[in-house]
Amino acid sequence: MNYRHEFHAGNFADVHKHAVLARILVHLAVKPAAFRVIDTHGGAGRYDLRGEAATRGREWPNGIGRLWRAPLLQPAAALLKPYMDAVAAFNPGGELRTYPGSPLIALSAMRPQDRLIACELEPRAAAGLKVALRGDARAKVLAMDGWTALGAMVPAKERRGLVLIDPPFEAEDEFTKLSSALGTAHRKWPTGIYLLWYPIKDRNAPDALARRLRRLAIAKMLRCEISSGSIGPGLTGSGLIVVNPPFKLENELRVLLPALCQVFPFKSAWRVDWLADEN
Q1: Which residues are annotated as catalytic?
Q2: Which of 95, 200, 204, 258 could anchor a disulfide with 237, C-beta 3.0 to 4.6 Å?
């Protein structure tokens, strides 16, 4: 699957992924001790929703475009506020023109003592990422392969933090890499939080991924998915795996996901379940 992100920025999968990312960061920031975020595939950092690629893709109007205008009810509105505030910071006039990628979503929730490492190998995207994060002392950009970086960057010096693994899925073996890389990283840093994103075209690859992850014998793995029907070239859903999820996250997702499904214009469904739960 080719997932050139400038065509898809702000779509329903981004909303799903970044809303959950923002919730995890809220929980990390509750404790005063510093934490680190490692974003293995950081992309370009920010995306012009009125640019040629986003205009041609026309996916964001049915994602962040819908959520931007939606009258949200509590408690979903409160759960989405950190994410929506991060997006609003890049659209101060109230007109939605810019979408922040995961490194900027992360920075929006980070404090002066926290640190971000964002990796990106593709030269044009890496250059954009450096521009997007320039001047922020909390952030460092590495122009390197995210899979290589994952092995080199864990455990985090702060001993607390989150690893976001969000590859472009341009190579056929990236579903396999997702499970093998997590296994290696988790052995080195078993207390870290890991957030893995994957696209859903059919059930074969996601279900095979779940079977491989269960064999890793990791104590706590929470899965959440949004299925949207056929809305684009092959993408029918968005999936996330959270390893070592914060205690309250499961209940939050059971509020958050149905609220998002009500906002999206297509017939959608959601699920939250455990691939592994030590309890």
Answers
A1: 166
A2: 200
